[in-house]
Specification:
Number of domains of chain B: 1
Oligomer: heterodimer
Largest sheet of chain B: 10 strands, mixed
Structural class of chain B: mainly beta
CATH architecture of chain B: Sandwich
Number of strands of chain B: 10
Number of helices of chain A: 6
Helix content of chain A: 25-40%
Helix content of chain B: under 10%
Distance between the termini of chain A: 42 Å
CATH class of chain B: Mainly Beta
CATH architecture of chain A: 3-Layer(aba) Sandwich
Strand order of the largest sheet of chain A: 1-10-9-4-5-6
CATH superfamily of chain B: PCu(A)C copper chaperone
CATH topology of chain A: Glutaredoxin
Amino acid sequence: MKNVKIVLIYFVLGVFLTGCYKHFPLDQDISRTQNTFFNQDSVKVEFPKIIQGKITLLAMVYTHCPDICPMTTHNMYLVQERLPRDLIDKVKFVIISFDPNRDTPSVLKKFAELRDLDFNYWTLLSGNEQNTKEVMLKFDVKAIPADSTYDNDGELSYSMIHTDRISLIDQDGKLRSNYKGSTADLTTIINDIKYLGE
Amino acid sequence: MNLLLAIFLLFSNPSDKVKIIDPWMRVGAQGQNTALFFKIENNSDKADTLYQVDFKQAGKVEIHETYDAGNGMMGMREIGKIVIPAKSTFELKPGSFHVMLIKLKQDIKKGFVGDFVLHFRNAGKIKIKAEAKEMMMKMHHKMN
């Protein structure tokens, strides 16, 4: 009788713990509203409609950033390089600019080309202020103009203090996890994509 | 003897005391900004200061620091100079100290080699060449 009780306790405990376990910290549906953007070829697209059915790694950046944003983009590139071949077609990589006044589609295209980003997998988006703000709010990304300087030709240049993040969105349009962008743990991201792709 | 020492000092390269190791620059598009990275090895008995960098292909060059602004945010600010204590090595690296190359006058593509002049208070001018890459291969990613 005592043994039966112990087995029963373990069973109940097991059911309870299994119910509590979640692989991902987030489960936020980001597909309820759409925002209009232009991709690197100036084609009008709706986001997140363009990633429907795909596992997506997303980062919000600005291309005048000399350090953090290129590191974040490069980390996404490394994830792509290290994903198994059978998984890569299920994955999209999206960059959205939070500095759309400077980051026009052609600027984003040049940014991508210099880094050998493959447009079969990568989409870079620029939108108007309203759409950009709405997506920033959705992903809790902040960007504030900071240090500014005039170059030798008298032209103003400014940098931005900004959220340093890569986000993982699943095939159902749910935000599942956020990672530090510039110093991302690539193994964790790759394992999380594999988990979604299984 | 003193005369010999004076002649030696006159013709010796002051940059022997300061060595620049592994310089590289990040790719960048015309009109945008990018960064230069390297290690400074100060073998002298005195601290030295890097206070200016020249690069003809940039509209302006500044010495910067990337910093953690809290709440998952990162920022960048001009610091003006870097002091390298005697007998020590200082590293300018991604996510940290860097030379900011503002408003590039041309595309800096992979493989481009840029000519830079680094100005030190004691070691004087040191000319270096830096190749453009996306990232230094030794970046410390947490990969198993």
